[in-house]
Amino acid sequence: MKTITKTKRNLVLVLICVLLVALAISPVSANQNTSGVVSLDSGSAGEYSNIAVADNYTSVASSENLELFADMSTGRFAVKNLNSGYVWYSTASDLERDSITLGKEKDYAQSILVVEYVNVDNEIETALTEYCDSNNAVATEVSNIDNGIRVDITFEVDLSSNAGDDESSAEEVEESIEAELVNLTVPVEFILDGDVFRAKVDIKNVKCDEHLIITGYDLLPYFGAADWTEDGYIFVPDGSGALINFNGHEETKSSYDEMVYGDDLSIQSDLNSTVKEAIRMPVFGLNNGSNAIFGIITEGAASSRIKANPTNYGHGYSKVNAEFKTKLLSTIVMFGKTSNKQEVNRLSEGNGNVDTFTVDYYFLSGNDADYVGMAKTYRSYLEEKGDLSKKTTKPVLNVDTYGAIDVTANFLGFSYKKLESLTSYSEVSKIADDLQSSGINNLGVRYIGWGNNGLTNDKILSSASYLGVLGGKKDFQTLSEYLEEKSISLTLDSDLITFTDGKSKYASKTAFAETYYKYQYLRSVYVRDLNGNEQMMLIPNMISKFSSKYFDSYNKKVDCDSISLSTLTNSVYSSLRPNKTVYRTMMPGYVEEVLENANSRKLNVSGESANDFTFKYLSKIYHA
Questions:
Q1: Using CA atoms, how far apart are residues 92 and 223, in angstroms rounded to an integer?
Q2: How far apart are CA 328 and CA 216, in angstroms?
Q3: Bridge partners, 201 (sequence order)
Q4: Residue 41 has pLDDT above 60, yes or no
Q5: Under DSSP, is residue 441 helix (H, G, I), strand (E, B) or coil?
Q6: Beta bridge partners of 247
Q7: Residue 109 clears pLDDT 80, i.e. is over it
């Protein structure tokens, strides 16, 4: 665990990037069009050996519908869709005509990879640029592999450029420069797998000096980017999905940058001024008319961010890509109300043993080159993996009913918590009967807060029990028999991961070993709702243990084989306690273990706003 204290200046977060050598000739053919996408004249159909690419591009792999070209000196590449003739480039084109893109974005636009790192030996910000320049030499070695290329990128990082203070003499700086050069090597691969183009960072074989901590890999930030003259849209998986038009943002600095499966709760915030949807599917895309590109994060999704920018102030291109975060950065403020106020930053340990970060790209054209085509592509991908299967069912109206809730009561001047009924077992029967009498024949009821401690767990859920305040076991059995007679499905919701009391040793921790809570925020002033229940989150690697106990009890006591695991199916988080870190990349595996256990017990499992890795275990998803 590395602890870094901010004193006079901010923590140094150095971004180094692969700046491909600026060529005297743009790597496009004489048939380049105004959009910056090369129109390659390949002769008659099927003759692709004479494609008029710049001399430094060669064909390295092909399939039935794609061909991959590469510059073997820099690692730049181009993928041609053989169906449409359209070519997608790894970096932005027409940069010499770009007067919009500013600052660091010029570097990103020429890069196939950006590596984020922290120098652990020096926290003082220096005059070094954040991007590779004369102070961070880059050596690129490109080699052929099966169906593609491997690019080994070696950075020579100058540690001494962050050494000393503003009063250091030139001689002192010169001496340190000669003594503090270290290397960082990152291998990336670009291959064709049939009609899929695969880009991957080989994290397992990254070579990093001990003075550096890598915090992220921003892969292909401008792959397929559309310039300021083009019309189209970016697809981002915000909730049920959203489209961002290329143009119309010229006066803004709007961008999209969100963590797949939602923000990590271990990174606490006092304020929350935004209302947003979590990403449930690790996908993204870009359409520029009759052609589209669609990406799926296939390895490392749980610790990835999806980043998008339309053409706007400072960005001449519309682009979307994925970044893998190897670390989470936590910050606390010490002595906040004194003149000695300090911020202490701490990086999380490990990355959950992720060996590769991989993104698969699909290229669409014609009638398939839109968000509908992207959806079809993702559905086919899930079907091929076995995570999704076609089912024929009748439409069902699913109704949520709420059982018991904790309220604050008073007795002789003392306050205490008690359970109060919102909807009793007998009232659920009446609601269902009224709906059927109104002509709703296909009806399903999900019962939330039906047992144990109602809507909010006081202790970690490890056994199932009926609630007397709702009518007890007898009334529940009457409800179950009535709904079965009426052919109305009943699903009981169970929260396996949150609790308000009990042993905090089972609660997830921040990087500072403090228990963190799942807070609600007031929409009016953006601050935490101090009157709400502060819910602790069960440590991810303990979920399987407690859920197994709960399923044992549930199977014995409860006459209902349909169970909703709403919080489990839409949560990904970390426990960052030093020396006992459970990073968020490990959470999907623990969740799947629980769902497999439930399925093996013949439980019919449903979820809510479920993450994609849970799909194959679920019979139904509420609020999809």
A1: 7
A2: 10
A3: 188, 357
A4: no
A5: coil
A6: none
A7: yes
| 3-state SS, residue 541 | helix
**Rg value, the chain, Cα:** 28
Average pLDDT estimate for 76-89:
93
d(CA 318, CA 312): 8
12 Cβ contact list (under 8 Å, min separation 6): 118, 119, 122, 123, 124, 125, 126, 162
Q: How far is CA 177 from the centre of its chain?
A: 38
Question: Which tokens belong to 383?
Answer: 């079907």
CB atoms within 10 A of CB 517: 19
| Confidence band of 161 (pLDDT split at 50, 70, 90) | low
Closest CA to 544 of 608, 588, 492, 502: 588
Cα 352 to the chain's mean position, in Å?
Answer: 15
Q: At 19, is the pLDDT very low, low, confident or very high (cuts 50, 70, 90)? A: very low
Residue 329 in contact with residue 252, Cβ under 8 Å? Answer: no
Confidence of residue 176 (pLDDT cuts 50, 70, 90): very low
Instruction: State the DSSP H helix or E strand holding residue 429, giving kind and residue range, or none if neither.
Output: helix 425-437
Cα separation, 21 vs 16, whole angstroms: 15
- Provide the residue type at 371 as one letter: Y
196 has pLDDT over 90: yes
474 is written with which tokens?
């007898």
List Cα–Cα distances, 383 to 105, 294, 369, 534, 541, in angstroms. 38, 17, 20, 39, 29
Vertex 50: Cα angle to 72 and 293 (nearest 5): 65
Q: Which amino acid is at 283?
A: V
Average the pLDDT over 430-452 and give the result: 95
Ramachandran angles phi, psi of 435, nearest 5°: -65, -40
**Which residue carries 């799942």 as its tokens?**
518
Q: What is the pLDDT of residue 56?
A: 76
Paired strand residues for 31:
none
Per-residue confidence (pLDDT) for residue 20, from 0 to 100: 32
Q: What is the DSSP letter of 481?
A: H
Q: Torsion over CA of 589, 590, 593 and 594, rounded to 10 degrees?
A: -140
For 424-428, the CB contacts below 8 A with 24+ separation are 424/469, 424/470, 424/471, 424/475, 425/450, 425/470, 425/471, 425/475, 425/476, 425/478, 425/479, 426/471, 426/475, 426/478, 426/479, 428/401, 428/479
Report residue 289 as tokens. 């008319």
- AA letter at 97: R
**Per-residue CA distances from 70 to 43, 115, 401, 615 (Å):** 21, 21, 58, 37
Give 200's strand partners.
Answer: 189, 358
Q: Which of 64, 69, 35 is nearest to 52 (CA)?
A: 69
